[in-house]
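User: Sequence for Ferric uptake regulation protein below. C-alpha cells please.
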Amino acid sequence: MSKTQPASKAIQMAERLCRERGVRLTNQRRDVLAAISASTRPLGAYDIMEALREKQPKIAPPTVYRALDFLQAEGLVHKLESLHAYVGCQHPDHPHFSQFLICNDCGDVDELHSAGVTGSLDDAAHARGFEPDHRTIEVVGRCARCLAQGSKPAP
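Assistant: C-alpha cells for Ferric uptake regulation protein:
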C-alpha cells in the first residue's frame, strides 16, 4: 500500500496550497488528485481515466495529462518514471526532491526525503559543470513486509 495521505486530507491541503499560490484547482484537477490519493498503488494516466469513468464518462487522455502536469508542477503528485505512474506527494507544502523505494512484490511506494542523497547528487553534477532541473531517484526491490512474509522476488 502506498504511503500517501488520505484523499480528503490531500484535497483539503491542495485547495489551501493552490489558494495561497494563486492557482486554480479545477474540478478536473481535483478529481485526478482524488483518484491518485485514494489509490493504494501508483496509477498511470489510463488507470486514472478508468477510476474517473463513472463520474466523467467522456474524460480523454489529454485532459488527464494536463491535470497531471499541473499537479506535478504544484508539487502535489510525483511521477514514478520507471512505472509511468503517479503517487500523491506526502509533503506538498514545501518544495523538495524525493527518493522512492518501490517494492516489486506488493507495489508499495515509500517516499523519502534524504538531504544527503540530494546533496551528494548535486555535488557530483556540479563537479561536472551540470545544473540539474529535476531529480527522480527510484530504488526498486522488496519492502520489509514482503521480506518478512518470505515472498519470492517477482520474475
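The helical segments are 7-21, 27-38, 45-52, 61-73, 115-127, 144-149.
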